[in-house]
């Protein structure tokens, strides 16, 4: 594809041609205009959620959505459940981490079982990279990835993009620093894919032990010095440092990590004066981020990210089920 034929992100085709995918398993499958299409679709749900009208929306009335979470996540599960119910769907939560999968049932068997239940859409979270795609290949309904291993977490990247766009007025041409445990983060991977695709300068800031090999191949700039990585940034996106990384294998101690890579007011001053601060949650206060930064309403967007998460997931469920519902133009 030549530069002359690349469609601008804001210029998407009409009807079903705007989003041709049956599933949403990752950002890697999307074009810039497909991302913009989802963000624009989510805008209506933001406003309706705030007005309270979406509680009575019946776009997905009569449809059944299964949230199959093979990996625990109260926040993401709750967000998807609220999204489905606000669209009028019947939502069933399958806590697969405590199900027969623990007793030896294979993932393919589980996929076949889910398919036999004739759900209209399945939301899947799994601890293994690629598991969501494997299930998507075996079922007859749309599948939405709620996070798989170190691979992707597409709705997190989409809600982050929507948050940035609403707070800064655009989500292109910005300098965005993604800081912390990039090596193990599917959130980082999906955000890198989305934000570079939309034309931003993306920086990765982390200790050398938490930077994946050949990171530059993802078209990012790599920094191991936090102050240098934040210099002039429009967006500072912090990543959660998981407890198992603090045992000395990747980091000497939480205290040393905070000293070198924790986001403090003094460190945030290196970014632009109006830079926003993001975090996917849950936070380790006093480790990757100070409370007075996380709770600063002028800079922090953390609660807005949660709000945008419901709207984005509503948009994704709506879009992925339009062919099932035979929406005009979506054949």
Question: What are the defining features of this structure?
Answer:
pyrimidine biosynthesis; Asp/Orn_carbamoyltranf_P-bd; 11 helices; 331 residues; disordered N terminus; Rossmann fold; 4-stranded parallel sheet; globular; alpha/beta; aspartate carbamoyltransferase activity
What can you tell me about this protein's structure?
By secondary structure, the protein is α/β, with parallel strands linked by helices. The protein has 2 domains: 9-152 and 307-321, Aspartate/ornithine carbamoyltransferase (Rossmann fold); 154-301, Rossmann fold (3-Layer(aba) Sandwich), CATH 3.40.50.1370. Helix content is 35%, strand content 13%. The protein has 11 helices and 9 strands. The strands form 2 sheets. A 5-stranded parallel β-sheet has the order 7-6-5-8-9. Strands 2-1-3-4 form a 4-stranded parallel β-sheet. Strand 5 (175-179), helix 6 and strand 6 (201-205) form a beta-alpha-beta unit. The model is unreliable at 1-5 (pLDDT under 50). Its EC number is 2.1.3.2.
Give the SSE layout.
Elements: H1 32-51, E1 64-69, H2 74-86, E2 90-94, H3 107-116, E3 121-126, H4 131-136, E4 143-148, H5 154-168, E5 175-179, H6 186-197, E6 201-205, E7 221-223, H7 226-230, E8 235-238, H8 254-261, H9 265-268, E9 276-278, H10 291-294, H11 302-320
Parallel strand pairs: 1-2, 1-3, 3-4, 5-6, 5-8, 6-7, 8-9
